[in-house]
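Hey Z.,

So I finally got round to the flavin-adenine dinucleotide thing we talked about over coffee. Here's the setup:
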Amino acid sequence: MPEAMVSAPAQVDVAVVGAGPAGLMLACELGLRKVRTVVLERDPAPPGHCRGFNLNARSLELLDRRGLADRFLAEGPTVPSTVFVGAAQLDLAAMRTGHPYVLGIAQTRVAEILAERAVELGVRILRGHRLAGLRQDDGGVCAEVDSPDGRTLLRPGRLVGCDGGRSTVRKLAGIGFPGTPADRFTLLGDVVLADPQAIAFGVTAGANGTVFAVPRPGYVRLITNDPQPPDDRDEPVTLPGFQDVLDRALGRHVEIAEARWLTRFGNAARLAERLRDGRVLLAGDAAHIHPPAGAIGVNAAIDDAMNLGWKLALVVRGQAPESLLDTYHAERHAAGARLLRNTRAQMLVAAEGERLAPVRELLAELARAQETAGYLAEEITGVGTRYPVQYGSGHPWEGRMVPDVPLERGSLLALLARTAGGALLVDGSTGTDALREAAEPWADRVTVVAAQPAGLPDAVAVLVRPDGHAAWAGTPSAPLDTNVQQVHGALQHWFGPPTVVL
Ligand SMILES: Cc1cc2nc3c(=O)[nH]c(=O)nc-3n(C[C@H](O)[C@H](O)[C@H](O)COP(=O)(O)OP(=O)(O)OC[C@H]3O[C@@H](n4cnc5c(N)ncnc54)[C@H](O)[C@@H]3O)c2cc1C
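And the result:
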């Protein structure tokens, strides 16, 4: 990975702590907008193991809005369904999205691609740099960083904790992490079996438990319940210990020839009480941890970063007020609460035995039914994410991700990828000149473009945020004055005050 191993630059606008998916995606978003960004990563090298193996439709939609989805789609197969409550295949084709599937891609590869992109955009990634101390004042943040050269001080304007579930940033900022502790533990082993045919891929019901086996290049991932986790849950999982649990679950001996990675994880669910404390913010696992149902953590991390990046850039560049950052908390804290609810619900229903079998059956039916599969899939993948709007007209697109609207020249996705800014799409009908004029003072942040006729169903204009969500949509039935007032209010709210040309 081409990472700059240089000493910390003197002038840093934003320090991002952690080079996981959240930190690297955020670094890309900030670098794209020329915000001077440094990523501090504790580990000297990327991990030798891989946790996640997927990107979902929501991540691909977001990456599409930066022109990046194809880089990821080239890396692996897509699958049109996903396991739901352990009992059903949920049809992803029922979702309203340009990517109605899940992409098989290693989390390590996701991080590599994002790191390459961040470096291309001028971000410095400092490996072997651990954040050890933190305080903030009116002028910025004072970060104590342990590196191979000893302890150094860094003074960025802002600092974002993307440093995982045990976030040092969250603890140092004094942000609470309420939720439910883990009461079930799972063992995961990336292993090479002496006889590769000894266990079938998929779920095997053994004499005393079930084992889930997933093929991976050169090895197999085995997942099984940990019936007797030690008092210290962080105690390393040993090969003899894992072998013993595996054999007990199956009721027979399946010889492990080599263990590449053995770990234990729980079903804790916690959400940071706030995602912002002054100049310090949280994203990804630092902000929320959840049971592993639905394989969503990497995707939620990318989602947080895409929401925060453009807002933080506008504030750092002095174009928008601090209050814009409060919308990050409002939107992604609510999204985090839904993430916890959805993953906990799936886990509870999947893990419970006979007692909840009828609930599983019912949910499996809903996952198959045309009328409900789309709703469930959009809910658990985040495709259905709808942010609250200010100055809204009630148009159904408001708050939602705008689909790829054909423009008179090009398309919305291409425009967002090129500018990484906002866009006001107008349909050219009578009176829309007034909307164009209303947006002129924001020309440095919002591009006004004409949509193709019929490109904007039941709307004369749509204001699109840099993350692709509709901030406002003007309806043909509304008086022109109302539309102008609404778009003015929405522009001011999402993009800061207008530029005054003297
Ligand atoms: C076994 C397992 C399987 C999973 N499978 C999936 C899956 O299939 N799909 C999915 O979407 N999600 C999956 N997840 C969840 C996913 O791995 C996480 O949600 C995701 O990694 C979160 O990204 P992040 O960037 O927030 O944090 P992380 O990826 O944890 O990155 C945090 C980074 O911060 C660094 N760091 C920590 N402290 C400091 C410090 N003080 N200073 C500097 N750096 C620091 C760490 O070294 C790390 O690199 C899985 C998780 C586990 C445990």
